[in-house]
Amino acid sequence: MPKILVTNDDGVHSEGIHALAAALRPLGQVIVAAPHIEASAIGHALTLRRPLRLERLRDGVYEIDGTPTDCVNIGITKLFQSLPDLVVSGINKGYNLGDDVTYSGTVSAAMEGTLLGVPSMAVSQVEGEVAGFEAAGRVAQLVAARLLVEGLPAKTLLNVNVPRGEVSGIRITRLGHRVYREKVIQEVDPRGRPYYWIGVGPPEWREDEASDIAAVHAGLASVTPLHLDLTHFGALGRMAEWEGGLNALLKKRQR
Ligand code: MN
Q: I need a surface site. Which of 61, 159, 189, 202 has the fewest CB within 10 A?
């Protein structure tokens, strides 16, 4: 029976993580290990300067006073006898689309699973007045089942985003690009000092029919394969000629 680690960044008490665990239980043995409080937009942060505690809440559910990345590290090494077969992070309340994946604790947890050699995916669903993660749970189960059979190429993870309500289909997409405008609001506090608030206003996106954002806007669940080798191989080739000039200058300066 496949072993599955479930984590998130909204915290172990969020509704989405338990909807995800329930959706994945038919596929294997599920263990939940998640931050004890919300750790959204924390990116791929790893806690190195203080000890971490692992607390068992009930059978198969653990909380850790750390980041999603901490949870994947401790979960994989301490809660399973051997490497699990799958890490699934979510269901995040709110999309993780396009360039926003670089901030996302949800997606970073799946990145960590990938770096540790376990096929991994992140699942997010749009936030709405109507709660409930059934649609995202159903999509997560289908994609996870396929992932357990097919596996993934090296250093690759899946980023899944699910719109509200009835999902009319599933589309394989690429990351969209966000237009960052008026992202920081400046106000004055009661003591007359300026303060700043990041991430205000509705997100704007560059038009791209093949993107994850276009898919969810069309009512489709989006599945994007992400690659963790951040090297830009095109630039690598083009920049080879920098070497000669830089080294000549370096030698001159060192003389
Ligand atoms: Mn979150």
A: 202
The answer, yes or no, to whether residue 168 has pLDDT greater than 70, is yes
Q: What is the pTM of this model?
A: 0.94
What is the distance between the alpha carbons of residues 62 and 58, in angstroms, rounded to a whole number?
A: 7
- Residue 128 above 80 pLDDT? no
Q: Is the pLDDT of residue 130 over 80?
A: no
Summarize pLDDT for 8-19 with one digit per residue, the tens: 999 999 999 999
- Residues that place a CB less than 5 A from ion ligand 1: 9-10, 40, 92
What is the set of domains in the chain, with CATH numbers?
A: 3-177+207-254 (3.40.1210.10)
Question: What distance in angstroms lies between residue 219's CA and the mean position of ligand 1's atoms?
Answer: 21
CA of 112 to the centre of ligand 1 (A): 16
